[in-house]
Amino acid sequence: xxxxxxxxxxxxxxxxxxxxxxxxxxxxxxxxxxxxxxxxxxxxxxxxxxxxxxxxxxxxxxxxxxxxxxxxxxxxxxxxxxxxxxx
Length: 87
Hints:
Elements: H1 2-6, H2 16-24, H3 53-72, H4 75-86
Helix pairs in contact: 2-4
């Protein structure tokens, strides 16, 4: 989807996580001055698996990765920065 858009073959509706890097590097531009984010990521497993160290380790790791991504690719800050540099 974003490859077609990057190649100039239309517009796309995309999830933040899938287009943030392309917006950051200028390959894609948002059509509006704001972005609606759903903010939803759900990790699920059987309750009895929560006691396993591997599961706990994975949950902590994925939370850290999500936080790093959000800090690096705050889409509204990226849009604001791009908008300010155009003026």
